């Protein structure tokens, strides 16, 4: 199935249906976070090759857009089937490349196949409308606006390391369904898993050039590709730092961006603390906290931390720490510098008086789950996104104070509110400046047909199957002026 995409451990790029090497003869080593081994090398593409790729994508898009929607949807269904047939290769590679534990890796692939199928079906319901002129003063019924949706052209999809398959496909599938061509720039760490998926799309019958890939370090080729005049839409998921940079330099190109988060769990005094503890721990530590939607701070009202913290500790002690193949929830972080950063935040908090309840233990890039109590707002961990398995508890005196601290963050992705009083939960939810509030559960993106969005530094635009198709298509208006007969 994958014999074309590599020579030895050197992976190529998909261009116009063929797997090719870069003329740069330069490659990027992909090291496994599990043991540091080089598990593959990907091409460092040149600017000239990026130009050719974009040119090819633009030509291929015209025919793809002409293909009847039901036929585009049928090809997407085939992609989903192939993904599921290759679940074991893909999930094994995810474990090696990004140290995702076995069951989460399998579920990433399954979820992605379901995502593609739902997208293919949803696209068939993206119907237009007709509007008659007489609704507006001074116009008559003979003016009829026929509104339908058309693709934007060539979509640049840039994905992050933590879901290299799912967060690549959640851009590719809606873009293709809407009739765009796609250029995928995968994360360097995670690129190989994404290239496997590109080959499955290729094998499923996505026409030549409709999906091309570009590999190379974001810091080297990123600015060039995002400012390229051939790109009609940028769909980016990654850090706020890079997202803001792209938004500044890219100019008048429409964009959909999902960025960082500092999701708060607000725990009210009347909540079921055992349930809350379970959800918070799962939300904070699964995949070592390397999720934009991980719970990244607990705001506990009054002294309920005295009860909540021991319950959380019980849950944390049940987490398995170790290797992805042993299906441990807490696995090595993506690299050593990510672990150094998490350590910096822990050290800063401890120096300023936070109480260590568990953790602060590290073996290279494997960080043990760490829980800090009595965290105060002068500590970096109260505000910064660790992207690692550390969770601060901030004790607050009132719900108002919890809301104030929650909203002071630069981020606005999601929040959780734990309480038995659903009416009051709605009141709190209405005050929180985030894209989504979860009542009595952890923060999370799915199910994938829900709208998913961040406000403030957490993103722009709305993702989610229907919303992504809408974002990557536009209205086309044709006005029919019907002759009136007296
Ligand atoms: P990242 O460093 O921002 O990288 C994301 C992607 O951007 C990678 O493909 C990267 O390529 C590329 N890139 C880097 N510089 C670029 C540039 N100048 N122009 C264009 N592309 C560039 O993020 P990450 O470390 O992979 O992911 C972690 C971050 O993503 C966290 O902050 C997390 O919260 C956020 N995230 C958000 C969501 C969400 O839905 N809100 C989901 C997942 C992750 P290289 O790998 O080659 O550098
Ligand atoms: O960080 C990736 C983001 O999209 C979260 O997805 O499903 O882990 O909430 P999920």
Automatic annotation (TrEMBL):
<dbReference type="InterPro" id="IPR016160">
    <property type="entry name" value="Ald_DH_CS_CYS"/>
</dbReference>
<dbReference type="InterPro" id="IPR016161">
    <property type="entry name" value="Ald_DH/histidinol_DH"/>
</dbReference>
<keyword id="KW-0560">Oxidoreductase</keyword>
<dbReference type="GO" id="GO:0008911">
    <property type="term" value="F:lactaldehyde dehydrogenase (NAD+) activity"/>
</dbReference>
<keyword id="KW-0521">NADP</keyword>
<comment type="similarity">
    <text>Belongs to the aldehyde dehydrogenase family.</text>
</comment>
<protein>
    <submittedName>
        <fullName>NADP-dependent glyceraldehyde-3-phosphate dehydrogenase</fullName>
    </submittedName>
</protein>
<feature type="domain" description="Aldehyde dehydrogenase">
    <location>
        <begin position="19"/>
        <end position="477"/>
    </location>
</feature>
<feature type="active site">
    <location>
        <position position="258"/>
    </location>
</feature>
<dbReference type="InterPro" id="IPR016162">
    <property type="entry name" value="Ald_DH_N"/>
</dbReference>
<dbReference type="InterPro" id="IPR029510">
    <property type="entry name" value="Ald_DH_CS_GLU"/>
</dbReference>
<dbReference type="InterPro" id="IPR016163">
    <property type="entry name" value="Ald_DH_C"/>
</dbReference>
<dbReference type="InterPro" id="IPR051020">
    <property type="entry name" value="ALDH-related_metabolic_enz"/>
</dbReference>
<dbReference type="InterPro" id="IPR015590">
    <property type="entry name" value="Aldehyde_DH_dom"/>
</dbReference>
<dbReference type="Pfam" id="PF00171">
    <property type="entry name" value="Aldedh"/>
</dbReference>
